[in-house]
């Protein structure tokens, strides 16, 4: 387990995982229950604000070596906002809610980290794999752990070729059945944005615009499409979450979309040119399935001269800040 980067401070809340048995065939005493970082476990018990963070962004969404630095910055941002960060991922088959720095480093630096959506969690655990969780998997785990707020960068959605490929991120279906508040900057225009919005509507995902009535396009402040509900403060978002609980109608996610200020968005001309190239290359390279999104993300990072990375980091930190404020406002509201 030392190799898995599990610090001694790590412990399971309810069950004991037999040391050395990770990845071994089920022999009656091995459990795959969620492990918690101490600080997260304490905060959850005490009802203090916690923000879930995904790890696919670290392993597959951002280039090395910036990914590790950014992963730490996101956690710091959540702390600065008065909440406890719970970065979620899998180490040697164990789901960990609240990875420590050694665990985050493993996921940032290893070459054998699997990208895990919800359906992958059980087989990856049984195989003793290291894995990074997507928005779909992170949401599902956060809900199971009793964490109500989750900060990410961009969401997965409907891909541009979906009419032929049926490639729609499992993030959307997961958000339709998972009770969680997700803060994102909308979706990247590597996706079919209007189709993604239609699917979010069909799937019953509540979409809020934070200080906007326009759905953000990640690098671009405005995707060109409207959002029905505008909210202007973390308290107002906490009120939406409280209303859902009290109404007893809270299956599915609340997606809070947090746009970049227009003077911070990526140069639209550079954006359109590189996006066009990336989509052409994707086609030519014959990339499919769960490799599509990482391929497009790394193409953008490599071909915008660092601009997309800088903007990406800015977006994530802003989302972490807002998520912490929502978690604090929700805890204050009881
Ligand atoms: N979009 C981004 N950055 C990301 C991702 C998506 O702008 O890092 C990651 C997230 O973890 C998301 C996943 O959940 O990719 C979606 O992958 P797919 O399209 O294969 O479902
Ligand atoms: Mn896909």
Automatic annotation (TrEMBL):
Residues bound to Mn(2+): 167
Keyword annotations: Glycosidase, Hydrolase, Lyase, Manganese, Metal-binding
Catalytic residues in the record: 54, 188
UniProt keyword annotation of Transcription present: no
Catalysed conversion reaction: D-ribose 5-phosphate + uracil = psi-UMP + H2O
EC number(s) on file: 4.2.1.70
The protein's enzyme class: lyase
Cofactors (names): Mn(2+)
A biological-process GO annotation: nucleobase catabolic process
GO cellular component: cytoplasm
GO molecular function: hydrolase activity, acting on glycosyl bonds; metal ion binding; pseudouridylate synthase activity
The keyword tRNA processing is assigned to this record: no
CC cofactor note: Binds 1 Mn(2+) ion per subunit.
Positions of substrate binding: 115, 135, 169-171
Function statement: Catalyzes the reversible cleavage of pseudouridine 5'-phosphate (PsiMP) to ribose 5-phosphate and uracil. Functions biologically in the cleavage direction, as part of a pseudouridine degradation pathway.
Family, similarity comment: Belongs to the pseudouridine-5'-phosphate glycosidase family.
PANTHER family, A to Z: CARBOHYDRATE KINASE PFKB DOMAIN-CONTAINING PROTEIN, ZGC:136858
HAMAP family for the chain: PsiMP_glycosidase
Complex and partners: Homotrimer.
Designated name of the protein: Pseudouridine-5'-phosphate glycosidase
Upper classification of the organism: Bacteria, Bacillati, Actinomycetota, Actinomycetes, Micromonosporales
């Amino acid at each position: 387990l030392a190799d898995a980067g599990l610090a001694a401070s790590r412990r399971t809340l309810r069950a004991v995982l037999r040391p050395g048995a990770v990845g071994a065939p089920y022999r009656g005493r091995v459990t795959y229950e969620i492990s918690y970082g101490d600080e997260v476990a304490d905060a959850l018990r005490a009802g203090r604000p916690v923000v879930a963070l995904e790890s696919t962004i670290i392993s597959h969404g951002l280039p090395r070596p910036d990914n590790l630095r950014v992963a730490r910055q996101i956690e710091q941002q959540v702390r600065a906002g008065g909440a406890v960060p719970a970065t979620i991922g899998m180490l040697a088959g164990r789901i960990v809610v609240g990875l420590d720095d050694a665990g985050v480093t493993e996921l940032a630096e290893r070459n054998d980290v699997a990208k895990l959506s919800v359906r992958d969690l059980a087989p990856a655990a049984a195989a003793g794999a290291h894995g990074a969780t997507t928005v779909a998997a992170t949401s599902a785990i956060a809900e199971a752990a009793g964490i109500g707020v989750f900060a990410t960068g961009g969401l997965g959605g409907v891909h541009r070729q979906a009419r032929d490929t049926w490639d729609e991120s499992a993030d959307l279906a997961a958000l339709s059945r998972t009770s969680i508040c997700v803060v994102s900057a909308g979706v990247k225009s590597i996706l079919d944005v209007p189709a993604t919005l239609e699917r979010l509507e069909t799937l019953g995902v509540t979409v809020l615009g934070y200080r906007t009535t326009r759905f953000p396009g990640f690098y671009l402040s405005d995707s060109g499409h409207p959002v029905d509900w505008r909210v202007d403060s973390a308290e107002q978002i906490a009120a939406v979450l409280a209303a859902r609980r009290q109404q007893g109608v809270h299956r599915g996610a609340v997606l809070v979309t947090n746009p970049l200020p227009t003077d911070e968005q990526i140069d639209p001309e550079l954006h359109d040119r590189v996006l066009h190239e990336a989509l052409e290359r994707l086609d030519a390279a014959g990339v499919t399935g769960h490799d599509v999104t990482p391929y497009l993300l790394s193409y953008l990072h490599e071909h915008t001269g660092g601009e997309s990375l800088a903007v990406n980091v800015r977006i994530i930190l802003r989302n972490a800040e807002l998520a912490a404020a929502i978690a604090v406002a929700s805890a204050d509201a009881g």
